[in-house]
Design a protein that fits this description.
alpha+beta, two-stranded antiparallel ribbon, 45% helix, five-stranded mixed beta sheet, 16 helices
Length: 429
Amino acid sequence: MSLNVIDLIKGQLGPALVSQAASQFGESESGISKAIGGLLPAVLGGLANNSDKPGVLDAITGASSSGILGNLLGGSSSNPIISTLLTSIFGDKVSGIVNAIATYSGISNNSSSSLLNLVTGAAVGSIGKYATDNNLDKSGISSLLGEQKGIVSSLLPAGLSLASLNLGSWFGGSSNADATSRYEEPKVEVTRSTTSSGTNPDRNNNNEGGGSIWKWLLPLLLLIAAAYFIWKQCDKKQTTTTTTTTDSTASTTDTATIAPADNTASATAVTKTDEDIDLNGVMLKGYKGGMEDQMITFLKSGDYKNAADDAALKDKWYDFDHVNFKMGSSTDLEAGSQGQLDNLVAILKAFPDAKIKIGGYTDKTGNEASNVKLSQARADFIKAALAKAGVGAQVLGAEGYGSKFATVDAKASDAERAADRKMSVRFAK
């Protein structure tokens, strides 16, 4: 092999950047360094595994002129090229990679997600620069990436594997004469009776003689892989649609999308369907008993008008059902989120005397300073969006509380901790 691409990328991720990232994310330098060491081969593997995709090649060729290498810490997280590229190469595996790296390195999911963007930016920037400097066209870039497949597994640090990153099916059939992967198929010699000429039959003919270890090992590995896939799919089937009114101990988002949950109900998943919610003759789409339904009922009851002061309102919070931020972002909403923000705008316009406050909350995992910063940024984003829609005068404040009111232990499952990760709104005076 003429070039080990990972050496190019490492040149952008030296001690100075590690130190800066540790300070910015509120993590230890050892944790940041360990996370980068795990993310580098994962990202390179993703690029190599998708080296024939036009979108991947476009991102690499475009990165050389985007200036991303000069602002990895500031530009990677907000660069649309990076977010689109990660979706293209990893699909729904992004959150699993972020979780695995966070667990492996001992950093928060917030930091892990930001580092994934940073490492991806360093990767496409470095490869793009190399391609420009060496006059490589897209075909040349594709070939260069394809050569890396044989070494990706061997570059993973101890304690990580493609399987642990939910990428176990990658490169299963790849081999490379220039690099030996630690997952390369063992060479098994089988002694058989010789032919009349004194030579052994083709040892790849596993239907004769003693056979190969792979005759039983391969089915076993496939069975294990199938079981792991089924388990992961079952683990994903957690509710993202339940909602109730909660007090200030139940609220908002963390590094992943907001998964609204009911702190006062059982943990059993409940699937709900959008229905028509009557707002003075105008029909809004929302859950029966969900945020819009509860807020409209409260306003129509006269309880808001009759509340003596803000203290009488501060303990009654309404959780967003559909407003979800993308992983690690405080400015990029998931598809389908805008509809509920529009509903809230409609409610405030229908009741112009009503005032609200926005709250942002995280679970107990990760660095608390980072949690507070993220939750505050997301609350501010919602406030700004409402102001842009013309109801800013009715929003009295937005505050991020981090994990201050989280109730679920940090060691609990992600599904259980989702109860502490929500965006919420309450009436105020």
